[in-house]
Amino acid sequence: MIGIIGGTGIAGILKGDKEEVINTKYGKAKVIIDKESDVVLLFRHGASHSLPPHKINYRANIYALKMLGVERILAINSVGSLKIDLKPGMFFIPNDFIEFTKKREETFYDCGKVVHIDMTEPYCPQLRNVLKSILEKRKYAYGEGVYVCTEGPRFETKREIEIYKNWGDVVGMTGYPEVVLARELEICYTSLCSITNYACGISKNILTVDEVLSTIKEMEDKILNIVEEFVNYKFGERDCICKDALKHAVIG
Ligand SMILES: CSC[C@H]1O[C@H](OP(=O)(O)O)[C@H](O)[C@@H]1O
C-alpha cells in the first residue's frame, strides 16, 4: 500500500472519497482510503488547511499509515528556494535534511525501547530514484539536495536565510519529523517538493501565502501527473535500507 501525504494547496488537487478517522495511541489521523488503487491519502494540514506546521500530529499521521499497511510514502511539500538556480516552479527531491524545529514530538521511542535510528540516507534511495525517473521522463525541471526544516509558522528572517543557504538548498516547515518517523517504522519515504518562492532576502519581495498558493496552482497539473505515475509504478520487492532500519538501532 502507498501513502500520499499532501501539503499546502494539495487538498484541492488530490480529491478522494470521504475521510476516515484512524485512532492511534498518538492521537487521531484523518485519511482517505482508495481501496481500488491501494492508496491512502492524508492531508497534513487537514482538508481545510486548519493545522499550522508546528501543530500537526506527525506521529499520529505516520502511525496511522503504518496501521493501514502503508510501506511506501510520497510526501508532497512546498518550499522556499535558498539558491538562485533553484527557481520557483521547479521541483526538488531532498536527499538529506537539517532541522531547527523546536517543540515537535520527533520520535516514537521516547519511553520503553531506546532506539537510535541511522540517518545516513534519511530518504529511501529506491523511491528517490523512481521519483527522479518520473520527473526526467516528463522533462520536469528539478533539483536535489538538503531540505532545511524550520518550526514556523512564521517565515524565516533574512539573517536566518543568510545562514541556512550555506547549509541547505530549500527551506520548509513540514519535512521534519515526518521523514524520521517513517524510518523509525521502517516505511520507505520520499519527498516531492514544489519550489513556490525564493526564501526571505533572496526574493526581492516580501513573502506571501498568496505567492505560495498561486505557484502551487500553476504546478498542480504536473504534481497530479507525478502522483499518478508514482502510485501506478510497478514497485518490486523492497530491498532498500528502510525495511530493516530497526535491525541495528535498538539498545537493550
Ligand atoms: C503557506 S507557505 C507555508 C506552508 O507551506 C508549507 O507546507 P507544506 O510543506 O505542507 O506544503 C510550509 O511547510 C508551511 O506549512
Enumerate the distinct ligands.
ligand LNRAV4D5
CATH architecture: 3-Layer(aba) Sandwich
| N-to-C SSE string, H for helix and E for strand | EEEEHEEEHEHEHEHE
Distance between the termini: 32 Å
The share of residues in helices is: 10-25%
Number of strands: 11
CATH homologous superfamily label: Nucleoside phosphorylase domain
Mean pLDDT: 96
User: Main sheet, how many strands, which sense, barrel?
Assistant: 5 strands, mixed, barrel
Global structural class:
alpha/beta
User: What proportion strand?
Assistant: 25-35%
The CATH topology turns out to be Rossmann fold
What's the level 1 CATH class? Answer: Alpha Beta
The strands making up the biggest β-sheet line up spatially as 5-9-8-6-10
**Poorly predicted parts:** none
How large is the radius of gyration?
A: 17 Å
Structure explained in plain terms:
There is one protein chain. This protein is globular. The protein has one domain: Rossmann fold (3-Layer(aba) Sandwich). The protein starts with a strand and ends with a strand. Strands 5-9-8-6-10 form a five-stranded mixed beta barrel. Strands 7-11 form a two-stranded antiparallel ribbon. Helix 3 links the parallel strand 8 and strand 9. It has five helices and eleven strands; from the N terminus they run ββββαβββαβαβαβαβ. Helices cover 24% and strands 28% of the residues. It is an alpha/beta fold and 252 residues long.
